[in-house]
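Fold this sequence, please.
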Amino acid sequence: MLECWRWYGPLDYISLEQVAQTGATGIVTALHEIPYGEVWSLEAVVERKALIEKDPTLGLSWQVVESLPVHEHIKRGHGDLEPLFDNYRQSMRNLAKAGIRTVCYNFMPLLDWTRTDLAKPLPRGGHALHFSAPRMAAFELFMLGRKQAEDDYQPSTIKEARIWFEGSTGQERDELLASIMSGLPGAYERYDCQTLAQALAQYDGIDRNVLRENYKRFLEAIIPLAEELDMRFCVHPDDPPRDILGLPRIVSNAQDIKWILDAVPSRSNGLTLCSGSLGANPGNDVPAIAKQFADWVFFAHLRNVKKYDDGSFTEAAHLEGDTDMVALVRHLLNEQSRRVQEETSDLIPFRPDHGHALLDDLSAKAHPGYPLIGRMRGLAEIRGLIAALN
């Protein structure tokens, strides 16, 4: 398996020289500064690739795009989509010309990953990302005013939500909104409660079945070209893997993954196995999902979570959460071995995901969930696990 590192390009406070010191050799990045729906020009792609590979002594190469974002109009099936599809396909051609053929993307409506706390204190020091079901309920019910949210939470959770909201300050509510918006590192849009409500209204009438139809239309528009270009598209699971803000989520469990792979059967239509996203769903056996879909895993995010009965979860250390990481990595290594023996593909790229903020991370201006030291710890732990299993 190929050790990789997510890097936000010129927007990242972590330098390529520091990334090289972690031991990772594959870079996972995107052209985050380009607005959704616009073409990634060949010049821009080549320039970013050259930046990554400028110093050959670092041994770095651009291995995975994360993400080539899907425009909201495509998710909603809104308007004439052909220009957006054309732009997306042109970006694919330009990436392929530069030798980059693995693309991670998601089909989560409006928001990407969602957390309510970006710096939850850990017992021995450091901070973690956290999703609090009561605070999310407080946001939906009492800040956003979405009364339908009462059906999405347990009565005890709603009670806790009301207590938190009534005792919260304006600053605490602003921090909650900012935390929820922080899952959009490359997007230009940031919402306040009013504009978020307006954006959500554009999804009125779009249920799970409609979103699936729109997703299939997207796959039908891009996968044939991906086959022609020998590219691998790897959908990222929903995070959290549940409906949120009244928006349907359709990549949350094994049944969803099977539907996606069956919708447009192709060696170019695959999966980003994110153990943290899938692991936040109490009904998911993540190692079993890895084994079931191993042949379609073209990229992996390895992290762990600790779940709670009310639907809350905390980002755990990579080897300490609810997911059996040993079993999970064993399945990936078995699949990697099969591919090497059959000469069917290159190494499976993986990266440590959402590390704890530790030591000097606490004073650094990292993207939420992407500190240097915490992720380096996660990478080292996974590296050791792989060595032991091998």
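The mean pLDDT is 95. The domain at 2-113+200-307+321-389 is CATH 3.20.20.150 (TIM Barrel).
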